[in-house]
Amino acid sequence: MEPLILGIESSCDETAAAVIRGRRLLSDEIISSATLQAQFGGVVPELASRAHTDAVDLVVQRALDRAGVKKEELSAVAVTYGAGLLGALLVGLSFAKGLAYGLNIPLIGVNHIRGHLAACYLEDDALAPPFLSLLASGGHTAILYCKNETEYEVLGGTRDDAVGEAFDKVARVLSLPYPGGPHVEKLAREGQPVIGLPVMLKGAGGYDFSYSGLKTAVINYVHTKEQKGEEWNRADLAASFQHAALDILARKAVEGAREKGVNVVTAGGGVVANGYLREKLALACEKAGLKLVLPAKHRCTDNAAMIACEGLIQYRAGNFSPLSLNACPSIPLR
Ligand code: KG4
Ligand code: ZN
Which residues are near ligand 1 (CB < 6 Å)? Predict the structure, then answer.
């Protein structure tokens, strides 16, 4: 019988729980405080912690009910222990510890970023390493070579801001609500990438990225136009930013796959929900004869299915966590 794993996620503003049997997803529940946080223009850590405390019990019960399983049947509890907001992480982690201790089953602390990358396994039963992965989230931007299910080699990453962070900052400049990414994408659909913006480390820098210069260029563009009292097109600026920010991700992912001699590319992280990036990746991979596996759009942003899936990988590898496991606001990939 395949292991039955409950995944719990509470690193930012989504309280989520999911159950998987082997790689088969049985339930995937989420309660979000994003609308509440949007009133403040970003995540207020204390509000996030309180919202998790209110939601965690309910969301776990919903996940078990929807999966049609009793908690006594679980093989293990997998939970995000980092990276994320300390108070928010502690809510999910403490709940998971209590459950694991009470049921006398293993606790598996999951690295949130690995969770984002593991989401691809839910899309394709046949997916197996080695492959090349693009990570594009609110906190990370990297090109990784996945050697086997538990080992990633970082080929390159951002030298400053993450791509999602740049989307959120540009959204503010364009007076768009939080979280900015989806709003920038929507606005960009109405414009054309006609404004010249710098693409950092295009030729140089190997697999590294830099987004702070691009972000500053967008801010400077708006300030200059406003100072001169000139008209400017918000949609064209959104489209131009998106083009500069995302084309390079698709290009470097394909270059990485070629260098490593793999024929599969995967991606994960909130920015992978972006339709323009998905299209660029699909085109670049098709041209290069590579297979592309992407998580469903709603599994690119934070969810518990990906945490359960990474939990399964760690379960099979026998990597269990002690009940003394602490929450870590910042952790490297491995
Ligand atoms: O992966 P994620 O949940 O964050 C981290 O774990 O770090 O993703 C959140 C990030 C935010 O920066 C958000 O603006 C961005 O992903 N995002 C998008 C889109 N949807 C979410 N960026 C661009 N286009 C989108 N459709
Ligand atoms: Zn995330």
Answer: 112, 116, 137-139, 164-165, 167-168, 179-182, 185, 269-271, 273-274, 301-302
